[in-house]
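Self-study notes.
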Amino acid sequence: MTAPVRVLVCDDQALIRTGFATIIDAQPDLEVVGECGDGRAAVDLARRLDPDMVVMDVRMPVLDGIEATRLLAGAGVENPVKVLVVTTFNLDEYVYEALRAGASGFLLKDAPPAQLLQGIRTVASGAALLAPEVTRQLVGKYAARIRPVPGTPEGTALAPRELEVLRLIANGLSNSEIAATLVISQETVKTYVSRILTKLDLRDRVQAVVYAYRNGLVT
């Protein structure tokens, strides 16, 4: 049997934290290995317990969820942990900063239990929990903040077709939409996406979007 996904739950509200833990632990393929109420404790517990992923609140005492995410999943972190941010704010500055800090996705706290569980499984599998239409909205709201400074080099490690696919990802297109635009199969698109993430050392499509804007590949 496949080992269950080991989850650390971090939220400063005990009722929400307990609720999440109860929902997660009731699933045969998921296991809560720890709970905590602030970002510093999340970092310490994650480093000690080595969970597969962390369900992370944003606004917390001692150390907020954004900085905790950066310490656990940010650039240059050895053995980064997957982080799913759960917040009361929909696509606000906090969510954007958390994604930029290394989170693999986000959910709202009022999401139904089934959506929380799906989100955990999605992030644990290595995918990003960010629908294409959400990517468009996120980029539309915050693109100006991730524009490159003069002289930022482009992603020259990518082949021309890979650059084309990356630009389409950054514009919020799904795999099926990219396939239709380039007149190729969805399987071919998946192959290109995988190559792009590998070559640029990115974990998911969210990071690919930020990379594209920061390196001047999208205007």
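Second protein, same conventions, sequence then structure:
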Amino acid sequence: MKKVLILGVNGFIGHHLSKRILETTDWEVYGMDMQNERIVDLLGNPRMHFFEGDITINKEWVEYHVKKCDVILPLVAIATPSTYVKEPLRVFELDFEANLPIVRSAAKYGKHLIFPSTSEVYGMSRDAEFDPENSELVYGPINKPRWIYACAKQLMDRVIWGYGMEGLNFTLFRPFNWIGAGLDSIHTPKEGSSRVLTQFFGHIVRGEAISLVDGGAQKRAFTYVDDGVDALMRIIENKDGKATGQIYNIGNPVNNYSIRELAAMMLKLAAEYPEYAAGAQKVQIVETSSGAYYGAGYQDVQNRVPKIENTRQDLGWAPTTGMADALRHIFDAYRGQVAAAQALMD
């Protein structure tokens, strides 16, 4: 029976992963977060051990549980582009500095560290597919603080790799635009405060304009969260030690769409739901510049497609959820929250 420590257990990946673990295995979950609203329905399970805390404050609790558990997933991070631009130091302090002691504890106590890298580490790589073993990692100039997130994550990847050279059992995974219910709050009217799909969804619910940054031509490969969690479960199981020392892109190359196409798909689907149709009819598509939307320190990536051959082969995994089904699952999940989200206009 594995003991799995999830720091950031109330986050998007954390709560979906915890639910899957409790439903499909006999493993125990030890989780820490500053809130618990996404995992309330899991707290009654005797194999779910939750502690309300902060990794920057409750350091003794964290180290004790790293020592106690078999598998460590430090999922606490800031991952919204507007924050990279406006508060780069805050991003570095949490995403790198606060996570470094956890990495060191995992090495000290000989645990399997499963660390969330990011698809952003590839930066503006010109490769048609981003290859975890061969692609060059290309970032913009220092006056574009947007890259501090990718840079902090890349440095952590390199530190973890260095510990691996000294014996650390680690796996790095790079999520490519995972989407699903609970990604961010749709109750957030502020531009740039959540990731693109949730942002668009909130605008549709409230009948607000959707802003396409720099025309919305930039593409992303979207991955439904259930497919991502499937891969994570196999990494945690680590059958025959196959995942040790590996870097895995976890994404769906087939779901590669531009942001403009995403907006169009979401508006078309919204028209099929009585809860969303009225709001969708009011939505106008407007274009804005990245400077106006995010600030002068922003730079974007035009294409971001994962190469997933080693993920498929090592883990016996493949993404199975197409874009239409992924969006429908999300629209279904939020049907009961429409009134609350609409009230934000008042």
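Instructor comment on the second fold: Residues 189-193 have pLDDT under 50 and may be disordered.
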